[in-house]
Amino acid sequence: MIRFTIMRLLQAIPVLFTVITVTFFLIRQAPGGPFDAEKPVIPAVKRALEAKYNLDQPIFQQYLSYFGDLFKGDMGPSFKYPGWQVEDLIMSGLPITAELAFYALLVALVIGVLAGCVAALKPNSPQDYIPMSLAMIGICFPTFLLGPLLVLIFGFGLNLVPVSGWGDLPGDKILPSITLGAAYAAYVARLTRGGMLEVLNQDYIRTARAKGLPEWVVICKHALRGGLIPTVSFLGPAFAGLLAGSFVVETIFQIPGLGRFYVQAAFNRDYTMILGTTIFLSTLIVVFNLLSDLLATWLNPRLRQQYSGGGS
Amino acid sequence: MSEPQSIIIEAEKGTSLWADAWVRLKNNKLALFGLYVVSFLIVVAILTPWIAPYSYEAQNLDLGATPPSWAHWFGTDLFGRDLLTRVMYGGRISLAVGILATSVALVIGVAWGTVAGYVGGRTDAVMMRIVDALYALPFIIFIILLMVVFGKSILLLFLAIGAVEWLTMARIVRGQVLTIRNQEYVEAARSMGLSTPHILRKHVVPNSLGPIIVYATLTVPQVMLLEAFLSFLGLGIQPPMSSWGLLISYGAEVMEDTPWLLIFPGLALSITLFALNFLGDGLRDALDPKASKD
Amino acid sequence: MSILDVKNLTTRFHTRNGVVTAVDDVSFSVDKGEILGIVGESGSGKSVSCYSLLGLIPMPPGNIESGVALFEGRDLLAMSESELRAVRGDDIAMIFQDPMTSLNPFLTIGEQLIEPLIYHRGIKRAAAKARAIELMEETGIVNAQGRFNAYPHEFSGGMRQRVMIAMALINEPKLLIADEPTTALDVTIQKQILELIADLQKRRDLAVIFISHDLGVVRHLADRVVVMKEGKVVEQNVTESIFENPQDQYTQDLLDAIPSGEKVNEDLRGDEILIEVSGLTTEFLDRNTGKPFKAVDDVSFNIQHNEILGLVGESGSGKSTIGRSILQLVEPSSGSVLFRGEELLGQSAKQLKPIRRRMQMIFQDPYASLNPRMTVYDTLAEPLLYHNVATRGTIDAHVLELMDDVGLARSAVKKYPHEFSGGQRQRIAIGRAIATKPEFIVADEPVSALDVTIQKQILELIMNLVAKHNLTMLFVSHDLSVVRSLCDRVLVLQYGKIVEIGETESLWSSSKEDYTQKLMAAVHTL
Question: What is the ipTM of this complex?
């Protein structure tokens, strides 16, 4: 398992390297510099600004020095927020986005796994159709539609919960978390149902029943482990999706998180900010893919032993 | 055995797996509903320029935003433009992006997956390593980056989306081809000395079509979602063109006063997604060989 | 004194395509300390009837329509789910056909073994572990203490079945239901497991229901036999009477279908050598270790003209790989294969094409060997057209003639494979193999996937065609009695190497090789 972990970590390095390189050079292709946006700047001032941000050097030189700085944890100054370092801006948004993503993941896993198991226990019965129809609704009402609708109904209509901000008013975390988590709860429910159905048809479940084990032991001890593997493997991609969804949710609910910074930076052509955020988010996604992969591998004893070099 | 043979050959016709699948699909009401809705939407999208009740751009500032009425079924927006017309034109774009990007994914994915799966060995390993590596890239962030850098052209949009979706397609096709390649009937074909192109055409491709069709059907709604997502953030389709995502984005901004501007484009998108997903699920049930055993 | 008394059991499945009566008014009983054999072909309802008793069939679509099953005076079919659960794994235990899939791959062997003790008897884990290790030792698992925490994939098939048996016996049940417990195992392992079951049964005075399709095994083991066909009991009697004096025609058919042990077909061998294999070695990459291993290791032999050469060995012996290596379906790493003196190794696909017309293959699984999207007509016409044996104008006649040859109705020619039974499919596959009038055929376990009565028909068909078309055949099989009844010579294979090769009868009467004798001893003839 340790060998497998190291192997996968080593594979992540070229991926991250590619991300950084491609992002860096792509950004330089963008039409319009960061100082073209609002009013035209006097050429002399523009040159001075470009010198300040290293933009007057050959591009390859810029690339190398950026890389060097990155290793020291320095992502350069923001173009749009003078006086701010990119890494500081990221760190100020990160805790909020992380909290939002965590609650959303909680919503997705708790509701999704429960609904999926319930449906799988009695396939093709109301116990299956009802949660699965709800899951289909969850998939067909995407974040950017569900969010405004929830705001419309629970915020403006019923006036039950606050509809903007994060941690300012009691209860203002409820709607964003549900909005972001709902679609993933639906995906998780479908995956769990599929995985559980597959496992429940296996011979070894029949063996467990033939042993006269109580049904909850059959489900929780014998079936769940194998049945949850597809769900666990989905956690990595789901996390990437949650981050992307947080762009939307943070925009709708005016939450000062990482996603909102990213979207704003994209509009403002804040090069260093886009670059920094892309690298940061990519690293997070790669790490989470790795974690969910490791967890899924570890859950399977055969793979676990194969990769630890032991076994027989 | 003395009867003329040609008569006997015509006499009894078997039911192919396709015919079986069609019967199963016809018995699945949700899938059939999905098929009808999708067909209806495609017809409307094609005919929009001729059947739209109003002109797409015509503003009527005196009228302003009005709720749904007999004259304007979906109401009008702040500029007095007919929302039904705008939803119809938006649907054209959304469906076009969905179908075109899926086609891009289909072509690349099937070619890549078939070669990797059938040739196997080292070629397969290298080709799939490339797919794995691309998978690990955070694509959603890359698409946003691309839209920022290269401007917001619709061509780039569906190329970018297609470029992401082909990965899964390639994996599915490769897995399918790999399974079929090891089936005894392909071995039988090889033992007869049939050429590789012949085997691919007659034996491998027809048997891998089922999952490909299912996955393609399920990719279209995903692509439409992605487009709407980007448009919502202001990174996809640009005004004066419109798509459902853009309409929803606009509707969300003004929903407090004019909720119909959010609700109707939202419903249009949701119903389309429902229909495509039901159709995809139904096709999966109909084409799944496991389901045909019971 | 009967321990289980089943009366008028009827089980139906309500499927999308209509109602199927899987068990139709079945009655039987099992006495204390008795082994009852239930025999029948696939679809006879032999397993479903036993699963019905314990509530192990999926409901819905399954439904027990009627019947009484008195186990020690209590009706199993009238019990609530929780009452039945208390019986399962305690008073009545089961073992299943495939030990590879019947154990949970995510849990250790030990964990699975002690579960019945914990949930039925409330025994503490430490005490349960001691008991489990005791039973593991009794069922012949070496180093039981050390392997208690091992996972199923670390055990071989035979060892897993021992674990299953230990698990079934851990609560000292009164009745053991064994559902084809040896079918998935190699013959030599089969014998060990059967001996183990017989031994444990005697020691515990256990009542056993032994479900099997293999009459030889049942005769050897059972005290009484129930014969089932299409959901109904056609005959039941003490074992002796069933085999010596069968009353029902179907029982008679089953008995007739078993190879008698003597060679039944003529020896047609010519003097010429058709195929000359020397130093053949085929390597594969081991998926787990990534290292190459030799599936076929330096094998040399000849096949004479019109000879039927049997190739026997257990799973993993490389017998199928030899057939595929000769046909160049897998690429041998070294050696030589001469077909009428012409070297086949290292030839390009183009050079091989004319030779491929002259050598063909029949596969084991008739469900996998036919393209499901091609009609019988297309399947049979493909090789004919490709090798220019027939033209567009004459193809109909050729195809219909092939249909006659393999005993299929001409009217079925436009049907698809899924519309045929297993036996009929195998006929189509045979038709495809002989379409181009080949000289040499590799038959890879051509009847192993079929029921015994169908097996007999297909073997007869193959023999007729061999005689009619002057075929030479390499007959690959794990079933020694079939090989003995057909083959002129037999080649015994183990771990990719030849153990011995010789005339069939002399091998049977006077083989000096341990392994050959072991294989032959494991066969239960009638």
Answer: 0.82
